[in-house]
Amino acid sequence: MKLPFRSWPPVTRLAALSGCLMAVACAVAPRPTPPAPRLEAPRAVIPIAPPQFDSGDSKFDAFLMAARTQALAQGITPETFDRATAGLKPIPEILNMNANQPEFSRPVWRYLDSAVSARRIGRGQAMLERYGEVLDRIEAQSGVAKEILVAIWGMETDYGATEGSFPLFAALATLAYEGPRADYARPEFFAALKIYQQQNYALGEMTGSWAGAFGQTQFTPTTFLKFAADGDGDGRIDLWQSPADALASAARLLTERGWKTGAPWGYEVRLPRHFAYELADAETSKPVSAWRRLGVKTAAGHRLPPSDEEAAIYLPAGARGPAFFLFPNFRVILKYNNAASYALAVGLLADRMAGAGPVKHDWPLGERPLSRDERISFQQDLAKLGFDPGPADGILGRGTRAALRRYQKAHGLPADGFPTAELLAALDRAAAN
Question: Are 208 and 218 spatial neighbours (Cβ–Cβ below 8 Å)?
Fold first, then answer.
């Protein structure tokens, strides 16, 4: 039985009240404030500075510094650029080749002697057999004749034997920082960086020619980015080590440039005695049937087929040398290498590998090539005589050949546009009077 609080003894009531007050005090007392966290000074962010190039050539170093900024703007990572350019220096051998033009150009018949040699024909036939299955598949997929592909392979690197040993980035940077090929080499340099970043090649395997082409079919970096193909199906494109990749890439380039399946590149023809040589121009195309009416025949002297296919007539050594029909596929080969002598060599080599015989008409072996100074004199003489050839730069391009044709026609000569030492002597005499 509990007694009411008032009936408790005074001492007991006092003790009880004291205990309650203590409990209330404990319940409402504030908790101690924790110590304030210790503030630390913010750490300074140290930016990663770009590398300092020290090649020994201040212009080269300045080019690399500017190129780094441009490369990063194009999506190249700093790590990619810095690895590719570490220790880079200009290559003196390339500087020398870049600055000096050859004094003499090689006559086309001497060029063809080496380009379409018996050794190269034999090796090409061996490659056709060795890689027959791969080539048949690529030909079926692309429509490009396998002999054309193997001929390009042979022309570019002698079937992989001479791919070039210059470090690709050093070669392109050497060409890009100054000199006549700078405008060509700069986009190629950035394209090579993209390839390095995308394909994860080892730097040591990225080698090529002094002009920056690489692999068994000698692609430039920009060409690689557009046309490279995985010919062996291993998921990696390797133009250095995989002939299948190199050949498939060459086929893709030709296909996308307009190759016509089953059509010829060209063939040798025989011109009539009184042929109008001003018609023999790579830009003047007529149906084969029209050339037939003008008296053009096959190299063996037979009548041409009554075809409506367009062809131009090409005289690589002038009126005294062989004549060739050129079809649209010849111009496609020029997209691979824009030199008519190269495209002619590819076509002839492909034909020889397929069993065709050599060129029937004799070459004018007695003609000597003109030196650069003589070519400039040639142009200066034509200009003095009123046949404007364009700038006197020693390059016998379309303007000079057209001017020469006008001179030849005005003087009753075969208007083949082919410069010879004999013509130069006549021009010198006429210009001096």
Answer: yes
Question: What are the CA-CA distances from residue 403 to residues 50, 384, 429 (Å)?
Answer: 54, 12, 17
- β-pairing, 266-270 with 297-298? antiparallel
DSSP, res 164: -
3-state secondary structure of 48: coil
The model carries a pTM of 0.86
Q: What is the pLDDT of residues 214-265, one digit of tens each?
A: 999 999 999 999 999 999 999 999 999 999 999 999 999 999 999 999 999 9
Q: Which residue has the tokens 């750490």?
A: 43
Rounded Cα distance, 357 and 42, in Å? 83
DSSP state of 214: B
The DSSP secondary structure of 276-345, one letter per residue, reads: -GGG--TT-EEEHHHHHHTT-EETTSPBPP----EEEEE-TT-TTS-EEEE-HHHHHHHTTS--HHHHHH
- Digit-coded pLDDT (tens) for 337-376: 999 999 999 999 999 999 999 999 999 999 999 999 999 9
Q: For the chain, what's the residue count?
A: 433
SS3 42: coil
* C-beta neighbour count of 320 within 10 angstroms: 16
